[in-house]
Design brief:
Length: 204
Amino acid sequence: MDIKRVPVSIYAEMTPNPKVMKFVSNKMLLQTDSAEFRNIEEAKPSPLATKLFHFPFVKEVFISGNYIAIAKFDVIEWDDVAQEVRVFITDFLQEGGVAVHEDQLTTAETAESEADGSPSVRDEDLGEIEGRIVDILEEYIKPAVAQDGGNIAFMGYKDKIVEVQLQGACSGCPSSTMTLKNGILSILQKMLPTLVDDVVAVNG
């Protein structure tokens, strides 16, 4: 019996961040939450990200669910290279290339969070308010942010200030401050009145 592979299709989509293009696949690339690689050294668990860093204009690679968000350096416009990158990703996946070795991710991320001194927040360490904030982020905010090729991770809650980390297209996006203040803050204040005064991104 001949088992036919479903052809891989990738389409490119602009994000609110002009430096980031989102490439969406018709197959899942990552089962866990997300993986962010800021250089070729960090990209070891991801054969796809490693190859993408061989493009001289690729600055960062963010993989989540069924899409890859790629941040570029200012040396070139997406109009000139998006098609080339799309074809490359399609061919890589079509030939059976692995996007991410998920078993290698946790060790890499743990080592990284230990190295830069920021402990990753574990669910069992969360208090009641933190848990509610995480639930709101997961249910209401993450899906919207993911549509724009980004991700948001809860980092902490202290003195009524929620700390988050912006990833993918959200990191360094000109409109991310607006998203933080108008979108995320207003949702949290509506659902947790008197408990949240501000939302800040720990990575700017």
